[in-house]
Amino acid sequence: MNSLLKPFGAFLLFSSFSFSSYAHDFNAGKIEVNHPWARPTAPVVKTAAVYLVINNSSQETERLLSVEVPTTIAQQAQIHHTQYSQDMAKMREVRDGLLISAAKKIEFTPGGTHIMLVGLKTPLAKGDKFPLLMRFEHSGEITVEVWVEDKPSSDAANSHHSHH
Ligand SMILES: [Cu+2]
Fold this sequence. Notes:
With 164 residues, the protein is an alpha+beta fold.
């Protein structure tokens, strides 16, 4: 809990600086996180998925170690892979961290890799925003702001292509 206070405090400071900006990108050193978003959830649903793009422009492999959201949002956040066998989609937690190769990006998408919020405390409503703390092996911690929306805005589509 203590470890949460500092990064989320920093996040509040950061977000007040970015209100005027259209971009919804966050970075720490050579790691950039583009447009984190989640779909609105129905009241009975206790899980939600967060999608984003991680861009590693460094010359070394980076690893996303863990993710965290405030306990007012959900009990836990996990990194999930989706695996398909026959017609079944199975989600599997990534426990050893998610590797992002040098000069590569990873897109978290519906039906693919995603961040799972488990034990959702309150339904996610369109227009909501909440912080997500991401811990990287080399780049340290980045707190990003997740936007709740039906689908990523064109801003997201653009940022996938306009960043090197
Ligand atoms: Cu999942």
